Amino acid sequence: MSRDTSRDALPPTPGSAEALAHAADLRAGFDYRTAFEFAPIGLVLSRHRLMIDCNRAVLAMFGAEREQLIGQSFRVLYPTQGEYERTGERIVASLDIDGRYADERVMRRVDGELFWCHVWGHALDATDPHAAGIWSFEDLSSRRSLKLDFTAREREIAALLIEGLTSKMVGKKLGISPRTVDVYRARLMRKVGASTTAELVHKLLAG
User: Are 76 and 51 in contact (CB under 8 A)?
Assistant: First the structure.
């Protein structure tokens, strides 16, 4: 009886011409649209802050149908117009040299529910951050719930405090004074019942 030895063959040496050719052969039959649609994280392609494509994970995350998002502004995913505008300004100001940006923020599902979300983005042209980009979204609500009624500004400051930023750094990002940040921090501490900033961050992370 003959034995199939194909599975016993050693793989090509990594980085070799043979390995690259083998990968190219495998890639030839790969459907990248399927990879985009079934990626385990939410993906959106954008131009000038309009969503031109998104995958199934995004639709599930935001509880939307494709026609509710495609061709629409990212504004529909933000709790308020002000948060949408200020986040856009922060992206322009904070983009790194490679055109990458990341933060954690409160976003809005189509039914109005607010939730914590981790967002990564890559602007294809770092000199024009909103011209074209690729964005990924991770729903954090399974480990960080949003139980209290925060104002738009409180949500923004809470997100930056979670990142470990000081009052001065938060103020610089939001275009407000450190003293104003301290006032909002005190409000947040009262709302969650925290006596220190560390306790505030712990309670925000715990939901």
Answer: no
Q: Tokens for 45?
A: 């392609």
Q: Using CA atoms in the order 47, 140, 166, 84, what is the torsion angle rounded to 10 degrees?
A: 30
Please tell me whether residue 161 adopts helix, strand or coil conformation: helix
- Domain 147-207, CATH: 1.10.10.10
Dist CA 189 CA 170 (whole Å) = 16
Residues 6+ apart with CB under 8 A from 75: 49, 81, 84
Residues constituting the chain = 207
Task: For 65-88, write each residue's pLDDT tens digit.
Answer: 999 999 999 999 999 999 999 999
CATH class of 30-146: alpha beta
Query: Using alpha carbons only, what angle is made at residue 193 by residues 188 and 197, rounded to the nearest 5 degrees?
Result: 55
What is the token pair recorded at 52? Answer: 């031109």
Instruction: Report the 10 Å Cβ neighbour count for 29.
Output: 6
The domain segmentation of the chain, as residue ranges, is 30-146, 147-207
